[in-house]
Amino acid sequence: MIQKGLKGVVAVETTIASVDGEKGELRYKDLLLKDVVEQQTFEAVASFLWEIDEKQVTRLLVEGRQLGFDHLFVLKVLPKSLSIMDQVRTVVSSMGTPELLARSLKEQAVLLTGALAVLTAAAYRIQREQQPVTPSVELPHVANYLYMLSGSHPTKSEVTALETYLITTMEHGMNASTFAARVTVSSESDLPSGLVSALGTMKGPLHGGAPSGVLALLDEIASVGSVETVVMNKLQSGERIMGFGHRVYKTNDPRSLVLREACKKLSGEERWLQLAVEAEKEITRLLALHKPGRRLYTNVEYYAAAIMKSIALPSELFTPTFSVARSVGWTAHMVEQLENNVIFRPESVYVTSVNDFAP
Asked: 227-242 pLDDT, tens per residue?
């Protein structure tokens, strides 16, 4: 039987993460996501997934920030009309130098993750005709990313909000971009090439599409002043309620629950987050009433949009920032693939075409 998209087909064994859509569980290793996130830093969770000492991860992330002149030069000469994802992907393709590839696989994973955040921030600023900000060697990974984007030191609440988001989206099992990365390195290609494949896949709107629709929904609710009015108008016109429903999770998306709690803690400082929390309750009630049996709950995009808005991150940075987080999962999977490698070689079934040449 053909499984289009390989849905339901098991292709690898992994110790990195597991997703249970029926139970609404996401585990990093053997730990539930909510237990991983509590009072943890990006560096701590990344070291847990990579299985590397946290101090070494911190040191290597800082080392990875030190991009060569050549990489920044490439960014500056690329067409400004390219998206940030395209620009970053192009530069990553030039990073497979003999010096990098001489390092261990796990060291390469950390170095590439450190570099990706710098490239993303630099590409963003260059597009805006601003000079890239020299990365700090003192700031932690998330604070440094925000610093490189704006040139100003972020507030504690901004760092907390984004760090929670990055940890929550760091890994999510065998998704399309992770599979693409594993397929690439299964040919015994290198980690930068696998990262290029992952970035190209993440760019697609069916995978890493920016949650701009959620922002539009919340903007409309804030403008109209009534959740019910906005939602009922959309339901009656057959529109989808953005930020609700997920292909995998048939109950609450565990990432959404974690981000909701972060929003509640920070909502005293940011009215936008308070709006998101209050609107979710009413939207969930209306969907259960008017679409019974559909089990439509918030997905990760709903609260991701609220958090991005609260820290004034522009929409063109949503998917690139998602990639800054997911680079940890991608590289962890590539290392795992290469440590016990079998090349991916699925089969296809030829279907006769009506246009076949007939001599």
From this structure: 999 999 999 999 989 8
